[in-house]
Amino acid sequence: MPVNMDELDDVLDESMEAAAGRTDLYLSMKIAEKTRLTPDEIRRLCPAPADMDRLDRLVAIVREEGDRRARARRFAEGAEDFGGIALELLRKVL
Q1: What radius of gyration do the chain's Cα atoms show?
Q2: In angstroms, how far apart are the furthest CA atoms of the chain?
Q3: Which of 8, 14, 17, 45 has the most neighbouring CB atoms within 10 Å?
Q4: Cα–Cα distance for residue pair 65/80, rounded to 1 Å
Q5: Whole-angstrom Cα distance, residue 24 to residue 39?
Q6: Residue 91 burial by CB count (10 A; 0-12/13-18/19+): exposed, middle or buried?
Q7: Which residues have C-beta within 8 Å of that of residue 59, sequence separation ≥ 6?
C-alpha cells in the first residue's frame, strides 16, 4: 500500500504541535512551582520555550542564596539574554 506523503506530513505536523503544547505546559508548571506566577501567566510572558528557559535562569539567580553583589553580577552578565523577560516581569509588578 503506497504512503500518502501529504497525509503523513499532516499527521506529523499535528503530532509535533501537540507535543510542543504539552512541553510548554510542563515547563510553565515547573517554573510556576518556583514563582508566584501561574502557568498561564508564564505562558503569556514566555511564548517560546527559549523564553521559558531564560525565565528559569533568571528565577534561579534571584532565588539563589548568597551575596547580593554576586547575584547582581550574574544578572548583569546575563542581562542581554534575559533582560526582556526581566522587563516584562517588572511591568507586571509595577
Answers
A1: 18
A2: 67
A3: 45
A4: 23
A5: 9
A6: exposed
A7: 31, 34, 35
| pTM (global) more than 0.85 | no
Enter the C-alpha cell of residue 24: 510548554
What is the distance of C-alpha 90 from the center of its chain? Answer: 16
Total H helices, total E strands in the chain: 4, 0
Of 16-20, 31-35, 61-65, 87-91, minimum mean pLDDT range: 16-20
Q: How far apart are CA 83 and CA 78, in angstroms?
A: 8
User: CA-CA distance, 28 to 15, in Å (whole number)?
Assistant: 20
Residues 26-50: tens digit of each pLDDT: 888 888 888 888 999 988 888 888 8
Look up residue 85 and give its three cell numbers.
523577560
The grid coordinates listed for 44 are 503569556
